[in-house]
Specification:
The complex is a heterodimer of chains A (228) and B (312). Chain A has 228 residues and is an alpha/beta fold. Chain A is 32% helix and 26% strand. Helices cover 73% and strands 7% of the residues of chain B. Classes of the chains: A alpha/beta (228), B alpha+beta (312).
């Protein structure tokens, strides 16, 4: 589904965010991007979202080189991606339900279908009772659930999450990860950028380790035979 | 494989998008009522000035018609012409494209009119021996230029059935000069104020875009096209423009109410009996349509894809 071939990304002459990164992601896979701040995790997500373009290399999604997509067609490409941000990015002037229904309304679905699907998505992330609240009336963890519901409500084939548990306590983080696992079971490809090694270890999914823009490891953790 | 609901077709998607954008566009100005109020007021003033000049121009057209009568052409016919021949000649003149109305006055009526005038009655007494010729008064159409009138008068003068043609060329020239000056002033001011409308609205929309920067960025990331992103701002511009146009029409009615008595006494001093009138329903609708078109254009120019990408 996703293929990074020798991708490099530079900001100016000396600032290299990615150096010769190559990897592939199969459809329906769930994986983590990890590394220190500035390792290049967010840059990979930004390249996949077409918020930036690679300085060098070939990036293909669903067999198509995304650099060839014209500027006016980028929005069509993004319709099949759900994005989750560390700072949630919910619209304060809309209710939780309206925030979640937004991607469906952009795709042209009727209000009744959009709100029905949004309610169902909110139920899935266990926050259905907060549908008519405004984002500022929710805790950070609840806001992140809303952000996740908004990302998957339109059933995209790819979900990208940038530090989704960055501000949350470990229990809440684990709950959110279980939601991601559930979405992955439904067939969505999920890429999560996170530096929370404890969480990554618990989920036992494929991990790509980045350091100073280089991909230094790509592995599938083995289940610990001694863990309960 | 993920099961997705079938995508709505293009037209339905387009219509639903507009429905949402209209709702957003209408509600957007009320989120910052004072700021929006100031913008509406400024736009209304910008619309009012050319609108006022245009309405004055429409009234002036009526006034011009009345003044033009003072410069109407008097065609004195050959004394040998009988009434039947004069009538045939009158019909010929009437069919000419620049002619608005023609009136035939026989010699007795001419005499009667002159006798009614205190100064002229004495002169008429002196020339009693001479019979008065029949006269055709020709009123030309308001939009005819002096050169055309000149040609018309020259042709009439050459006609053997015509004794003499009298018309005040200087008056018509002056009237046309005044008319052209007023028209040009109205055009220039309309252009300048429309330019101001564009700048103000462009600035307002640019500020709105900056205020909604994070929202627009998010919409872009969840798959909204540039057209979808700009739609609600376009409607907001149109809403501001339509309200401003309505307000400018109210300003116009108030100013005409204030001016009515003053203008009436002024024109009466010149012996003209006309009243100041406002705009017809069609003209009001035209003003609203023009205002909406101008504000939409201003909004669209400030929401070009390049501009949008630069701000976002």
């Amino acid at each position: 589904m996703i293929s990074f071939k020798r991708i490099s990304k530079s900001y100016g002459k000396d600032n290299k965010a990615l150096r010769d990164v190559s990897f592939e992601v199969e459809a329906g896979e769930m994986l983590f991007l990890t590394g220190h701040s500035g390792a290049g995790k967010t840059t990979i997500l930004r390249l996949l979202m077409m918020m930036q373009s690679a300085s060098y290399g070939q990036l293909c999604v669903n067999g198509k080189e995304i650099n060839t997509i014209k500027a006016r067609d980028i929005h069509k490409y993004r319709l099949d991606i759900g994005m989750i941000f560390q700072d949630h990015r919910l619209l304060d002037n809309k209710t939780v339900l309206e925030n979640v229904a937004l991607p469906l309304q952009i795709r042209g679905y009727s209000d009744s279908y959009s709100f029905k699907s949004a309610r169902s998505a909110l139920q899935q992330v266990s926050i259905g009772e907060k549908a008519n609240f405004y984002p500022q009336e929710l805790s950070s963890g609840q806001q992140q659930r809303v952000g996740i519901a908004r990302a998957f409500v339109a059933k995209p084939s790819l979900i990208l999450a940038d530090e989704p548990t960055g501000n949350l306590d470990p229990d809440l983080s684990l709950e959110l990860m279980q939601i991601f696992e559930e979405l992955n079971k439904q067939g969505m490809t999920i890429i999560i950028a996170s530096h929370d090694l404890f969480l990554i270890k618990r989920l036992q999914k494929r991990v790509l380790v980045l350091d100073k823009g280089e991909l230094i490891d790509d592995f599938n953790p083995q289940p610990n035979p001694y863990s309960p | 494989m993920i099961k997705k609901a079938p995508q709505p077709n293009g037209l339905i998607k387009y219509l639903r998008g507009h429905k949402h954008a209209i709702g957003e566009g209408i509600s957007m100005p009320w989120k910052q009522p004072i700021k929006s109020g100031m913008t509406i007021l400024t736009l209304a003033i910008c619309f009012f000035i050319p609108l006022f000049l245009w309405t004055i121009w429409l009234n002036y057209d009526e006034l011009k018609e009345s003044w033009q009568q003072q410069g109407s052409i008097a065609v004195f016919l050959d004394g040998k012409m009988d009434l039947k021949e004069a009538d045939i000649f009158l019909q010929e003149i009437k069919e000419m494209p620049i002619v608005d109305t023609v009136v035939l006055t026989d010699s007795n009526q001419v005499k009667k009119t002159l006798f009614e005038d205190a100064q002229f009655s004495q002169v008429v007494d002196l020339i009693q021996a001479e019979d008065f010729p029949k006269q055709i008064s020709v009123k030309i159409k308001p939009d005819v230029v002096v050169e055309e009138v000149d040609d018309f008068v020259n042709n009439l003068s050459l006609n053997p059935q015509v004794e003499y043609v009298s018309y005040d060329k200087q008056w018509l020239t002056q009237l046309e000069a005044i008319t052209q000056t007023l028209l040009q002033m109205a055009r220039i001011s309309a252009l300048m104020f429309l330019l101001i409308v564009m700048v103000i609205l462009g600035n307002t929309i640019a500020n709105e875009i900056t205020d909604h920067k994070s929202e627009l960025r998010l919409l872009e990331l969840i798959g909204a096209s540039d057209a979808q992103t700009r739609r609600s701002f376009l409607y907001m511009g149109v809403v501001l423009g339509a309200i401003a146009a309505l307000l400018s029409l109210i300003f116009l009615s108030v100013s005409f109410y204030w001016l009515e008595d003053t203008v009436a006494s002024l024109v009466q001093n010149f012996g003209i009996n006309i009243t100041l009138h406002g705009l017809s329903v069609t003209q009001i609708l035209s003003v609203l349509f023009a205002a909406i078109l101008v504000t939409w254009l201003a909004a669209r120019l400030s929401l070009s894809s390049a501009q949008l990408n630069q701000v976002i």
